[in-house]
Every structure is written in C-alpha cells, then in structure tokens.
Design a protein that fits this description.
The radius of gyration is 38 Å and the shape is elongated. It contains 9 helices and 19 strands. The strands form 4 sheets. Strands 1-2-3-4-5-6-7-8 form an 8-stranded mixed beta sheet, with no helix packed on it. Strands 10, 15, 16, 18 and 19 form a 5-stranded antiparallel beta sheet that branches. A 3-stranded antiparallel beta sheet has the order 9-17-11, with no helix packed on it. The protein starts with 5 loop residues before the first helix and ends with a strand. The relative contact order is 0.08. A hairpin with a 6-residue loop joins β12 and β13. α2 runs antiparallel to α3. By secondary structure, it is an alpha/beta fold. The chain is 14% helix and 20% strand.
Length: 488
C-alpha cells in the first residue's frame, strides 16, 4: 500500500484553492491604484470589490467543506496577497477536515499548524495515531471509521488541551490502559460508539477516573447488551450529563440509585426469545380409517410441528434444546421426576451439555445422575467460517414445544427461551448475521401388527388339574416410528 500522509493530503487540497490564480493573487488582473473616474480604465484590470464578487461566483467558487477557514483565506489572497507565506497559511487554519482521503499515516507535518483547534481524520485508513505528531493546540480530534485497534501511541503523548475525542466505528477492545487522568486532564466528551468494548465494569472504572468527563457515547458496543447497562453507568458516573447522545435527568439517576452495588454479572447478556403464531401450513393427508372387524389396520400418521433456532451459548431457563444431529429424528428429552425442574448448562471449556435433574433428597441417586448429551455444532453451513470470535462449538440448537396439527386455528408456541451469554463480543458478531429459524414437521407413523394365535399347551399340572385355556382372541401390537421434515 502506498504511503499517504496527512500533510501531503493537505498540500493537495491547498493547491485546489488556487490562491495565486485569478481572481486571487497579485497578477496583472489586479488594479494597483484607486480608480479615478476621470482617467480611462484598463479593461484587463479588476477592482478589489469586483474580485471579491467574482471569487464568490459559481465560476470561481471553491469547495470549502474541508475547512471553515477557506473563505477568509481566499479573501486575504485578494486583499493582501503578499501576506500569504507558508507559515502564515499554516497558522491561519484553526479547523481541518481531511475526510475520506485514504490517509494511512499521521506524520509530523501537522505540527506546522500552530493554531489548529479542530482536526477530523474520519473515514481514512489509520491503524495507529501518533500523539507526538498532533498539534499541541488541538481541542477536538475526530478519528471515526478508521482501523484503529488501540490508542497506545496516542495516549503516550496526547494534545494537553484536548476536550473532545471521537474514535467511533473502529476496532477498540480495551481502553483501560490508555485513558489516564494525568494524560487527559481536560477531556469533556468521549465517543467510543461502534467498537468492540465488551467489559462494562472495566470500561466504566476507567472512565470514572477522568475528572472533566461529562459526555460519553458507548452505543453499539457489545457491553451495551448487558441488562441495565445505562443504569450501571449512571450510578457509577454521577458527573455525566449526556450518555449515548441523550441528556440525563434527575429522575434517570434516582431510578438507578445504588444499582451498581448489586451482586450481578455485569458482563453477561440475557436474551428472551418468543416464537410467533404460524398459519397457512399445508394440510396433511388424512389417515385411512381402521376396520377392526376385518382386521384392517392401515398405517396412521400423526403430524406435530416445532420451531428450531440456532443461537450462541447456553440457555438458563425455560429451555428446550434439540441435541440430535440434523439428519436424524429428534429424540425426546430425558423426563424429569415428578416435582423436579430441568436445567441445561454449558461450561465455558466443555464441549458437552449436561442434563441436571433437581429432585428431592428422598429420591435415589440413580435418578439424579444422567448421561451427557453431545452438543450439535451449528448447521451444515457454518455461520462464521472466518470469525474467530464465534467458535462453532459455541452454537447450540434450541427448539420450541411441539404443537399438533390444527386445521381450525394457527399454531401457537407459548414457551419462551431465555439465553444467557457472557461472551459479549462473540454474541455481538453473531447478531450481525441472520439468525436461522426453521419450522419442522414431525411425522409419527403408527403400525399395528396382528399377532398369530398361540397354541394351547398339552402339559397339565402335577396335581392333575388342567391349566385354564388361554384367550383365543387375536392379539395385536403397535409399533411407532417418526421422521422430521423442514418446512421453512
């Protein structure tokens, strides 16, 4: 990749201002003395007022988006062109916006801006920002939408008077090592939105130490998935006046008083998933009637439906986990003893789920210990082939309760799945992809077989009494089989 520095980009934009070309500069088109109406006027010369009007016309108008000081600089190039030396031009700029210019290095050429107060380098390709190369007079620094993964070089020697810093839409995962009160004494506003900050407690502990901080934005970071995330911040940072671009009222603070003192997992997200009603399904083929008089027992089919969902991590309550392989029928879970509850949990380092049955102490231990069930590792097509934040063995398949076919009403799935995940960065990446829901049709086949008549045994008892004859009615047995068919 070719080197593209910030100062080189500025020189290129400066050349587009055409400060030495008409109507600016001191060329032959400029009238050198005051006009005298008695003398004949040179048609090739323009008055100062005319040059200023021409500079604002559509023909010679220059784009001024990259600085608020361009208009005044061009005006000086018309009035006093001899003042425009290189040092004067650099000292004239107080605002500079080098946006989407492909800059990949922040060089020392920016130190020439002695009076620069606002610098925006949004939408470039910066991976690091050397604080030693930033003007010391800087008060506003915007580094949105770059490739910054750490602030080490910036925090080593930041501008001492910096009041606002925006580093949103980058790849920051940790700020605890970079934001120290001694290096950021005047920082009033900090925008960390759209990064990969996942540890709420460590992040807030770091922000609390900044003495002047009043405005913080943490939107669309993984830590925002934590329940009552804003309440925790409001309780821990009483000096804040704006959080995530929303002003904080006194009622907001009172609602979350002392919430940060609760013994909760402030680095885990909880998701509650409910399934919608399903209608307009294809109607199953009706079963043939059974004729017992003529011993006709055709195969009977029972149709049941459930929703299958791929999601990250493990459920904590109200769970229904399908652990069968995708190409095999779904097996029934181990039924818990009466008066007990079922809980499925996944240890962070394990690759199997354990079914734990909570029963009364009076019941035998044989009922408590149950075999381990292998975890289904996602679908046949992995969601994250190149995403290291979401390993395939962390994906589980959850299912809703089964509902029988009902021609008169839609299928209603009332069970709720609650999923807890402490890998906030992983679940944040997971939710950027489509979540797969599949409506499954379970077909249960019932076969009835007529058993042949059992012959009477000729052996009699030792006492000479004959055994009672067995019932001569034909016996029948029922065999069932099931299969799964994905519908959606």
């Amino acid at each position: 990749m070719a080197l593209n520095t910030a100062s080189a980009t500025f020189y290129n934009d400066l050349s587009l201002l055409k400060l030495n070309q008409f109507p600016c500069g001191s060329g032959p088109w400029r009238q050198l003395k005051e006009p005298n109406y008695l003398e004949e006027r040179n048609p090739q010369e323009e008055t100062l007022l005319s040059l200023q009007e021409l500079a604002r016309s559509e023909v010679w108008k220059i784009e001024e988006k990259w600085s608020d000081d361009i208009s005044s600089l061009r005006n000086l190039a018309i009035k006093k062109p001899k003042l425009l030396t290189e040092d004067f031009i650099f000292s004239h700029f107080k605002c500079l916006r080098l946006i989407d210019k492909g800059i990949n290095e922040l060089d020392s050429g920016l130190l020439k801006f002695k009076n620069l107060q606002e610098l925006s380098l949004t939408g470039n390709m910066l991976k690091t920002v050397a604080g030693v190369n930033l003007p010391r007079s800087l008060k506003v620094l915007q580094l949105y939408a770059n490739r910054i993964s750490d602030l080490e070089e910036l925090a080593s020697n930041p501008p001492p008077q910096l009041q606002h810093m925006g580093v949103g839409h980058n790849y920051l995962t940790n700020i605890t090592s970079y934001l120290r009160p001694s290096t950021w004494p005047f920082l009033l506003s900090l925008d960390l939105s759209y990064n990969n900050l996942a540890n709420l407690k460590e992040t807030v502990d770091c922000l609390v130490e900044l003495p002047k901080l009043r405005n913080v934005s943490l939107m669309r970071n993984p830590l925002m998935l934590v329940p009552a995330y804003n309440g925790y911040i409001l309780d821990r940072m009483p000096q804040l006046t704006i959080l995530d671009d929303v002003s904080i009222s006194l009622d907001d603070r009172l609602n979350f008083t002392k919430i940060s003192t609760l013994e909760l997992d402030w680095n885990a997200a909880i998701f509650s998933i409910t399934f919608p009603c399903v209608s307009n399904l294809r109607e199953p083929v009706p079963n043939e009637p059974i004729d017992e008089a003529n011993f006709e027992y055709p195969t009977q089919y029972e149709y049941r439906y459930f929703i299958r969902l791929h999601f990250l991590s493990n459920p904590i309550s109200g769970e229904r986990v399908d652990t069968a392989a995708p190409d095999r029928p779904r097996t029934s879970p181990i039924p818990p003893p009466e008066g007990s509850s079922r809980r499925v949990s996944l240890a962070p380092d394990d690759k199997t789920t354990k079914v734990v049955i909570n029963v009364d102490e009076k019941q035998d231990e044989e009922q408590i210990v149950k075999p381990e069930i292998p975890v289904l590792r996602g679908s046949e097509k992995p969601f994250f082939e190149e995403d290291k934040c979401v390993p395939q063995d962390a994906l589980l398949v959850f299912t809703s309760e089964e509902q029988p076919w009902n021609a008169e009403a839609p299928l209603e799935f009332n069970d709720k799945i609650i999923i807890m995940c402490s890998n906030l960065e992983g679940v944040n990446h997971f939710l950027r992809h489509p979540v797969q829901f599949t409506l499954m049709e379970k077909v249960v086949e019932s076969h009835v077989e007529v058993m042949p008549q059992v012959p009477e045994s000729p052996v009699s008892s030792a006492k000479g009494k004959k055994q009672a004859p067995k019932d001569k009615k034909k016996e029948k047995s029922t065999d069932c089989d099931s299969a799964l068919i994905p519908l959606l």
